[in-house]
Amino acid sequence: MKKPEPTPIVSLEIADDGLGPLVAQVRSLLQSARRTAAVSINSLQVRTNYEIGRLIVEHEQQGHQRAAYGQALVKELARRLTTEVGRGYSYQSLYVMRNFYLAYRTSIQAIFQTPSGILPNNLPAEVFTLSWSHYVLLIGVRDENERRFYEIEAGRNSWSLRELQRQVGSGLYERLALSRDKVRAQQLANEGQIVATPADIIKDPYVLEFLGLDISPGYSESDLESAIISKLEHFLLELGKGFLFEGRQKRFTFDEDHFYVDLVFYNRLLRCYVLIDLKLDQLTHQDLGQMQMYVNYFDRYVKAPEENPTVGIVLCRRKKDALVELTLPKDANIFAAAYQLYLPTKEDLRSRLMEWIEESGDAGEASPD
């Protein structure tokens, strides 16, 4: 009996038929369409929730103007919507939508000159640029200037919800405001953080809670430096915009003596080197003098002619502004800033900001509450 011939094996590999570029183009188009659809869906959700909040507030205003009436209204609305539409419209969810409208009504009125903050039909996409989860977090920021700052920065830097939570929790707005004069502090709310001068990159204090170091003085400068290197991505985010890491313990020799700069960065927005020296204790005038020498060396022997002057930052546990003022010339590109290994409380930062406003002699204009 003749044996059956074996079934030939068919290769599943497809020969190069020149479709590679076409596949790549179609794939790119589909990915772009999906991203656009996601953004459109998110924008529609935020807009819808804003309008729901508006309808609730307007219905309340036609009622008895009592808190108890408003709460009962929202609870009954939640019950009926859950029955007729489904999940997602609980009392808590509807109340957040109500508060969202109240928080953004004034800005919508200012932008579109519409009564009661009603959204126009042809709403530009840039009005609501964040996810609903981002706005839920921002509603809890009471000060309008502070809230606007975080909204601008979250959109501009594509902050995830977790990163936005960290920046709000660490008091980024207050820390930047404390490092600026009143005019530039107001610009934070209108334009976000603009990096145009060396002073624009300074925060006071820097918050390094992500390093995981014990607050007690049981660590060395080397431990602090190593912790920063191991969490370099987090540290770059805390430093702010435009920073690129170049190296640690950067050595240079002068008159046969060796010197080491703890951390060397480059800021592409300022187009200059940024040197950071780490100090575990209170700042001294010797620390500032040492940084002045580092900056001078980089300016004379490292930076290119077309680059801007080097910036020096001394990070220390404690500093006295009077000492810094007396030690450094007014045009020095050297700054001293404190760091802390724990998240600050909003109350402490607000208290410092209020003291700063009062010392500037104009406490009434920029109250954070």
Please characterize this protein's 3D structure.
It is a single chain. The protein is α/β, with parallel strands linked by helices and 369 residues long. 50% of the residues lie in helices and 12% in strands. The chain has helices at residues 20-61, 67-84, 91-112, 132-139, 144-156, 161-169, 172-178, 182-191, 221-230, 232-239, 285-302, 321-327, 346-359; strands spanning 206-207, 243-254, 257-267, 272-278, 311-316, 334-340. Strands 1-6-5-4-3-2 form a 6-stranded mixed sheet, with helices on both faces. Helix 7 runs parallel beside helix 13 and helix 9 crosses helix 10.
Brief overview:
The protein is of the alpha/beta class.
> How much of the sequence is in beta strands?
5-15%
**Number of extended strands:** 6
> Which residues form runs of ≥5 with pLDDT under 50?
9-14, 362-369
Helix content: 40-55%
Distance between the termini: 97 Å
Total number of helices:
13
Structural class comes to: alpha/beta
**Net shape:** globular
Global Rg: 28 Å
Main traits of this protein?
about 375 residues; alpha/beta; 13 helices; disordered C terminus
Write the layout of secondary structure elements.
Blueprint: H1 20-61, H2 67-84, H3 91-112, H4 132-139, H5 144-156, H6 161-169, H7 172-178, H8 182-191, E1 206-207, H9 221-230, H10 232-239, E2 243-254, E3 257-267, E4 272-278, H11 285-302, E5 311-316, H12 321-327, E6 334-340, H13 346-359
Parallel strand pairs: 1-6, 4-5, 5-6
Antiparallel strand pairs: 2-3, 3-4
